[in-house]
Amino acid sequence: MAGPGKLSLDPSSSRTLRSLAGGTLVVVSFLLWAPLPALAFLPLSLQHKAVVGAALVGSAEVAFWLGLVLAGPAVLQRLRARWRRNSALPAGFQSLGA
Prior knowledge:
Layout: H1 11-33, H2 36-39, H3 46-71, H4 73-87
């Protein structure tokens, strides 16, 4: 048994480590979106801004999906449920779509 702060080779701890790594990657992916609005105000050429912006967006997407894969299917199911719940129209607006 490993003490606090020590890594263990126990299979259950590797699952926890994968979940932690996956969650960290998801958080990092959201942080990579943060500098995009400021990119417009940097003294770079349009081509450089496009390359940096594309690199940030691409990195954020890769980190997000890789994080979800590492975190496991339970996290993905919770995110899907939350997305469906938040994307539903409120009761008073349902007649507008028809």
